[in-house]
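Predict the 3D structure for this chain.
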Amino acid sequence: MSARGRPIRCASGTAERVTQAGIGLLLAAFALDSLDQPLLASATALGAALLVVGAIRGWCPGGLLVQRVAAAPWQEEQPADR
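Done. Predicted structure below.
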């Protein structure tokens, strides 16, 4: 989240979002093909879901990490209640 409470978003255009969704669909197909290896299929399906949902909502692929890093300095500035 940004300082104003809004989620951080990419300035991605239509081409980037379509490409991101396409890569997510390719990963989903790879996950379905790898069902005999459950750990690989689960990890790939999770990545595919994040990419497809991110493409639909306009998230950056690394947006979750950026939000945590951006929130860390704000949390350190708060005085400790003792």
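The helical segments are 14-33, 38-57, 63-77.
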